[in-house]
Design brief:
By secondary structure, the chain is an alpha/beta fold. It has 10 helices and 12 strands. The structure holds iron/sulfur cluster. Iron/sulfur cluster (SF4) binds next to helix 1, helix 5 and helix 8.
Length: 294
């Protein structure tokens, strides 16, 4: 089996690059200051270890625990950094800016989304947010909406349209496609009106489009990314839905039990692509390991 890294489908997106630059530059400019990331900067074990090497701590906890933690344990003179996934006023309110320093690594695209969400008129409407209710982006973004009538779903199948008797505002997390939901509502007898805010990340869309262009060339795909990265899962699930043999790989020993020397893989080609929170160098490292193994 041959393994090939697809460069235009791998590596960091601009939002992640910016977040890393923000954190690493802080260490360069403030070599002796405590630096603490509020939540995971991005979902990536390699990045976590790079942060540790630079003595940058991560408060890796649920968003609401983070709020409580900062309320109780804010450290004086520490530099706190908001993660790439966004934050809401409830977290800002718990940080006394006269005691410590603040920096913001939020992805500009997510910032724009949240600004827009805060302006939507939600009265008398049902909000359906397509995303992962455990993910910090979904938790934070839905707090920008001026409504309590919000349902977060991973797929539109979780919604019973027959029970909704008011207009729907349909919104998606930046890593969740919205088209299926629009189609399902449009094809139903739903008659109360639909307002759509499609926030699918353009960089992720480009990555998917580039992968689509390669589907006729490769038999197997490896998606390099963390198991809790929503865009890694999105790319993985997309490839599975196209009936591609696909593996999500986060650590070099993830698939040691597989054997690609089996004769059904002879003369087959595997593509290595990555989540937008993965460095392309990691893809090449995995390629070398896979090459050595099989
Ligand atoms: S994938 Fe898109 S939304 Fe997410 S950090 Fe990158 S640029 Fe921002």
């Amino acid at each position: 089996m041959e393994f090939e890294v697809l460069e235009n489908c791998s590596g960091f997106c601009p939002g992640v690059k910016r977040a890393l630059r923000t954190a690493f530059d802080l260490r360069i400019n403030y070599p002796h200051r405590e630096i603490v990331i509020l939540g995971q900067l991005v979902h990536n074990v390699q990045v976590s270890s790079q942060l540790k090497q630079r003595r940058i701590r991560t408060l890796d906890m649920e968003y609401d625990d983070l709020i409580r933690f900062m309320h109780l344990f804010q450290e004086e003179k520490t530099m706190y950094v908001y993660s790439a996934h966004g934050h809401f006023k409830d977290l800002e309110d718990e940080i006394d800016p006269t005691k410590s320093f603040l920096s913001d690594a939020t992805c500009p695209f997510i910032k724009t989304i949240n600004d827009e969400l805060s302006t939507i008129k939600c009265d008398g409407k049902k909000i359906i947010y397509i995303g992962d209710k455990e993910h910090i982006e979904a938790i934070v973004s839905t707090r920008y909406l001026n409504s309590t009538n919000i349902q977060i779903v991973k797929t539109i199948d979780e919604i019973n349209l027959n029970t909704i008797q008011q207009p729907i505002i349909l919104i998606n997390q930046s890593t969740y496609p919205i088209e299926d939901a629009i189609q399902k509502i449009n094809e139903s007898n739903f008659k109360y009106g639909l307002e759509i805010y499609n926030h699918f990340c353009p960089y992720l869309k480009l990555r998917i489009d580039n992968i689509i262009d390669t589907l006729h060339l490769y038999d197997v795909y490896f998606v390099v990314g963390s198991h809790n990265s929503s865009n890694a899962n999105m790319i993985f699930n997309y490839l599975k839905s196209r009936n591609k043999e696909t593996y999500l790989i986060n650590r070099p020993d993830d698939y040691l039990d597989l054997d690609f020397r089996d004769e059904r893989y002879i003369r087959k080609k595997a593509a290595i692509v990555s989540a937008t929170s993965q460095d392309i160098d990691v893809c090449y490292t995995f390629r070398d390991i896979l090459d050595d193994l099989w």
